[in-house]
Amino acid sequence: MAHKELAFGGKLLRDLLTSGAVELAHAVVDRLAANLPVYRALPAEELSGDIVTVAKRCIRQFADVLHDGALPEPGDLAELRESAARRAEEGVPLDAVLSAYHLGIRVCLDLVVPHAEPADLPAVIETQRLTLEYLRLVAAAVSAGYFDVRGEEQEARQSLFSVLLDGGDAEQVATRSGLRLPAGYLVLGLGVGVHPDERREGIDRSVAARRKVRRLRNALERATPERVLATLSPDGGIALLATKTATEPTPQEWTALGELVARLAKAAGTDVLAAAVPARPAGVQEAATLAGELRAVAYAFGMRSGLYRLDDLTVEYQLTRPGPARDRLAAQLDPVRDKPELLGTLRAYVSSGLNRRATATGLHVHPNTVDYRLRKVAALTGLDTTRPAEVLRVRAALAALDATVHGVG
C-alpha cells in the first residue's frame, strides 16, 4: 500500500520541518548545549559549524522519511557515520553522541506535534513508528562510525610506523600488510603551541586539544597523496611524509615544506615548529632522534614556529652537545646567572645585533644604563662585548647556558 504523506492539521510534516531547517538546526544545537554538558563545553566554532551542518542534514533526512515513509539506505547515513567518527577522535562519549540525535529528533517533534488534531491520530501513530525506525538506523550508523575510527588499515599503518621508529624490518611488515614503502621519508619533529580554546574558561580543554590535533592531522593528510604516518599529541609529535626519492630535498621542495608548516599552524590555530630530517626507510629511527633533538634546540633558543633543518641550526646544535667545553662556556656566566637585569641586558644586546639604543628601547631604560650593565657583566665574567673577538664567545656562552638550563643534548 502506498504511503500517505503525513500531515498534522492539514500541514505536511516535511514542509513544517524543512521550511525553516536552518533555524531549526540552530535550535537543535542550542538545545544540545543546554542539556548535554559535553556539547556545551565544545568550542563555539565547532557548534556553529560542523554540529549545525550535521543537524541540518539530519532534519532534512528525517523530514523525507516522514514524507515518503521510506527509511534511508546505509549509504545515506554516511555523513552521520563520519560525524560520529570525528566526535570519537575528540573524545566525546558515545552516550552523549547518541543522546544528541535523540534530543534533536525531540526538537523536531516538538515543532510538529502542536499542529496535530484528533482526526490525525493515525498519522501520529505512523509518525511514532517511523521515528523509532529512523532512530534505530541512526544509532547503528553512529555507533559503527564511532568505533570505526581505528580500522584495519589504520592498524596496519600504525604497525609500520612503530617498526620504522624502532629500526625494525619495515619492508617485511609492509609486505605482510599489503602496504608499499616509499623511497624515502621526510621525518618531522613537530612542536605545537596551545590553542586559545585550551585556556578559555568554560571550554573543555581536553576536547579543544583533541580537536586541535584532529585539524593538524587532517592538514597533514591533505599535504601528500600518500597517507601520513604520525603520532600526534596536543604539544607535538613525529610525522613521516613519504617522498619519491631518498635524496636531499631541493631548495624548492624545502620552500614547499615551509609553506606546509605554515598551513599546519593555520589549521592548528597556534604556533607549529617543525624540525625536518630526510631519510631512507631504514634510517627513520636515527632521523627521528635527530629531528627531536633539533626541535629541542630550536625551543631552547626561543624559536616557536617555522621549519628548521640541521643546516639552519648547526651552530646551536653543536653548542648544545654535552661535554666539558659546553660546561666551561656556560660556567662563564655563573656570576650573572642569578642577576636577571644583567643577564637579560646581555641577551637583549646580543639579540639586537649589538645595538645599544635598540637594547635600551626594548628594555625601557636609558642607553647609559645598558652600558653600565654590560660593563658589570664584563667585570664579573670577563666577557667584554666591546671587544669584537669576544662577541662569538658571548654568543656561545649564552647558547651553552640555555642548553644546560633546558636540558638539551
TrEMBL record:
Q: Pfam families, per this entry?
A: HTH_30 (PF13556), RsbRD_N (PF14361)
Signal sequence bounds: none
Entry superkingdom? Bacteria
**Domain RsbT co-antagonist protein RsbRD N-terminal: residue ranges:** 23-159
Q: Where is the PucR C-terminal helix-turn-helix domain?
A: 342-400
Protein's recorded name: PucR-like helix-turn-helix protein
